[in-house]
Amino acid sequence: MVVIESKEGRAPDLEVVAAAWDSARSRSLRRLVVCAGTGCIANGSLKVYEALKTRAAEAGLKVSIGLDVHDDAKKDALLTKSGCQGFCQVGPLVTIEPDGILYTHVHVEDVPEIVEKTLVRGEAIERLQYRDPVSGEVKRGKGEIDFYARQDRRVLSACGVVDPEDLYEYISRDGYRAARKALLEMSPADVCEVMKASGLRGRGGAGFPTGRKWELALRQDEREKYIICNGDEGDPGAFMDRSVLEGNPHSVVEGMLIGARATGATIGYVYVRAEYPLAVVRIRAAVEAARASGFLGKDIMGSGVDFDIRVMEGAGAFVCGEASAMVSSIMGNRGMPRPKPPRTAEKGLWGKPTVVNNVETLAQVATIILHGAAEYRKTGTERSPGTKTYALTGHVANTGLIEVPFGTSLRTVLFDIGGGVLGKDGKPDNAAFKAVQIGGPSGGCLTKDHLDIPMDFDSLGAIGAMVGSGGLVVMNDATCMVQMARFFMHFTQNESCGKCVPCREGTRQILALLDDIIEGRADETTLGLIEELCENVAESSLCGLGASAPSPVLSMLRQFRPEFEAHVRDKRCPTGQCKALSPFAIDPAACKGCGMCAKACPASAISGERKEAHRIDQAACLRCGACVATCKFNAIKRGAL
Fold it and tell me: Is the C or the N end of the chain the one with fewer CB within 10 Å?
């Protein structure tokens, strides 16, 4: 990107930059945006990007690779990359504007046709467009696809649209205007009051009011203060923060700058998981571009405010998502939580006041300052204003990154945006819906009874669940809830820092009891013991990781107790997923007595005369499934005793 020189080290005129970008953009007939989020890159989108450059040149088209505001020449097309466009399941994605076309599952082999038909002749290619899995109808672009059309994308409005490495494009979309307003027209107390009035609550899990947190830090009588962006997203199935950092990093930089104005911080840290290499690269590029253009550094915009940002990679410990553990990690120590009070806003980095906000929280700050608290509160609910991003994964037709207002029902998310639940055969079957784990390993389980409950902080908290960071893992009726409880407990037990005994030993014991259930060793006392242990761990653990670790287990036990009891009392897994409790059996009516299963059995556990129904010796059976793979008549079933 070409940088417009700033005068005397100060940021350039925002209106001049925006006008220059818009003018340069208007000189291109079309814009092709190739999704370069992590998911699409893994499926080959960068190869598509390079192929588009090469093929367009071969076709004699004048294509601008990235936008140069100083290039006055007319272009046939502008080719740029974007962050995650959200619909990861059908990537790689290519968006073409102003035609309003979205191409899905694009590969290098499709590029010649895209160039010749769409760029040269202006025709849409039907086979590359999204086809509704139920109606079979072809959809031209995002506006016609329910996955996009039923969302309210605000935090994600620029993700998948803008070039994340183009500061000018961010400025053209009102970027850094809110920061200018906060720095030049508002006092720190004014900024805090607006944030309090907006009702913005932290999107990292706890939902603490952002304005109150900033005000607490502002009140501290210290010259040295810090602000931290928590990008240490570690929940299984969650990738919201990663996508914002990859797709619109300047929104986070601007949010931190406004937060610094509100609290008096002079240094900020963006703490990002090392497992997010692309997010690290793009937030670093954004910080460097902002610094080079005068939006970070000394006397920003002539306000007298000094503020700079440093990017730090986390060590991959889930517990470092907890504020005090993150502070410890940044200071070079092992990431372990400490007792509170004092809060980090009072004593954080090097004993100084430190505000910690997560990525999604900071990405909303500029909009609130620019348009006002009242405008922000028009979306969402009274106590949970605004929108929430969710990573929708699991047994659902449309997986990807979504954003909806607080108060939206689970039914809308699953059946309208998500396209319905997938059954055992991989086809849409809403009747197969069993549960959704919301909030990751700290959250709770929602069932059919909760389809119409508003998804907001208070409504979910009332039923023992939580918004959390925003992971939504959908499960169909083939899912064993005991195994799911074990999965989340294994994750939190593995991620325990070990500092406090309740979390370190309690989670280990809960995990061992769940293993007993799955392996058929549990007795009548097991479920009661699990509940007692869960309550003790939740009440006595030092930090939020331990306090919330039992939540999925307790939630699933509460919602699916008969399934747990079947494992314990009947030694039977209703879904047939637990091998020790799901023996194989031969259906006499279907068995032809061919003997192939007996030959394949490594334990010689199958016997029977030729052309007669065979039998399985359950004591000798290894549950390996070799017989099932061999039988041509589908006569052997798991759990069919």
Answer: C
Q: How far, in Å, CA of 246 to CA of 46, rounded?
A: 15
pTM, entire model? 0.90
Q: Model confidence over 323-359: pLDDT tens digits? A: 898 999 999 998 888 888 888 999 999 999 999 999 9
Say if residue 342 is preceded by a cis peptide, omega within 30 of 0: yes
CA distances from 102 to 92, 106, 244 (A): 10, 10, 21
CA proximity to 436, closest of 399, 410, 402: 410
Write the DSSP symbol of residue 332. T
Task: Return d(Cα 500, Cα 338) in angstroms, integer.
Answer: 10
Taking the C-alpha atoms of residue 572 and residue 517, their distance in angstroms, rounded to an integer, is 10
Beta-carbon contacts of residue 621 (< 8 Å; ≥ 6 apart): 583, 584, 603, 605
Scan for tokens 């069919």, then name that residue.
640
Q: How far is CA 368 from CA 154, 178, 254, 620, in A?
A: 11, 8, 12, 67
Rounded CA separation 446/338 (Å): 32
H or E, element range at 394: strand 387-394
DSSP designation for 5: P
Pairing of β 101-103 and β 94-97: antiparallel
Gap between the Cα atoms of 72 and 80, Å rounded: 18
Output the CA–CA distances (angstroms, integers) from residue 399 to 46, 325, 473, 476, 634, in the order listed: 21, 32, 10, 14, 32
Residue 639 confidence (pLDDT): 65
Helix axes 481-495, 561-569, angle to 10 degrees: 90
Q: Check if the beta carbon of residue 197 is closer than 8 Å to that of residue 382.
A: no
User: Which residues on neighbouring strands pair with residue 201, listed in sequence order?
Assistant: 209
Tokens in use for 355? Answer: 């505000």
Distance (Å, whole) CA 309 – CA 291: 9
pLDDT per position as a tens digit, 72-105? 899 999 999 999 999 999 989 999 999 999 999 9
Average pLDDT in the 298-308 region?
Answer: 94
Please name the residues in contact with 480: beta carbons below 8 A apart, sequence gap of 6 or more. 563, 573, 574, 575, 577, 578
Distance CA 554, CA 189 (A): 42
- Is the CB of residue 568 less than 8 Å from the CB of residue 517? yes
Query: How does DSSP classify residue 525?
Result: T
Structure tokens at 234: 């570690």
Sequence-distant (≥ 6) Cβ neighbours of residue 167 within 8 angstroms: 1, 3, 175, 250, 286, 289, 290, 293
Answer yes or no: are the C-beta atoms of 502 and 474 closer than 8 Å.
no
Query: Which residue, chain included where needed, has tokens 């959390």?
Result: 468
More confident call, 576 vs 630: 630
**3-class DSSP assignment, residue 569:** helix
The mean pLDDT of the chain is 92
Q: What is the dihedral of CA 535, 537, 542, 547, to 10 degrees?
A: -60
Spatial separation of the C-alpha atoms in residues 480 and 486, rounded to whole Å? 10
Among the listed residues 307, 310, 286, the one whose alpha carbon sits nearest the alpha carbon of residue 296: 307
Q: Are the beta carbons of 271 and 284 closer than 8 angstroms?
A: no
Residue 497 in this model has a pLDDT that exceeds 90: no
> What is the DSSP track for 526-547?
HHHHHHHHHHHHHHH-SSHHHH
Q: Are 82 and 163 within 8 A, CB to CB?
A: yes
Distance between CA atoms of residues 171 and 14, nearest Å: 7
